[in-house]
Amino acid sequence: MHIHILGICGTFMGSLAVLAKELGHRVTGSDANVYPPMSTQLQAQGIELTQGYDPAQLDPAPDLVVIGNALSRGNPAVEHVLNKGLAYVSGPQWLADHVLQGRWVLAVAGTHGKTSSSSMLAWVLEHAGMSPGFLIGGVPQNFGISARLGGTPFFVVEADEYDSAFFDKRSKFVHYRPRTAILNNLEFDHADIFADLAAIERQFHHLVRTIPGDGLIIHPSSESALQRVIQMGCWTPVQTTGAGGQWQASLLSEDGSRFEVSFAGKVEGVVDWQLTGQHNVANALAVLAAARHVGVVPTQGIAALGEFKNAKRRMEKVAEVNGVTIYDDFAHHPTAIATTLDGLRKRIGSAQLIAVVEPRSNSMKLGAHRDGLPESVQQADSVYWYAPANLGWDLAATVASSSVPTQVCDSLEAIIEGVKAQATPGTQVVIMSNGGFGGLHGKLAKALAE
Question: Is the domain of 273 the same as that of 365?
Answer without folding.
Answer: no
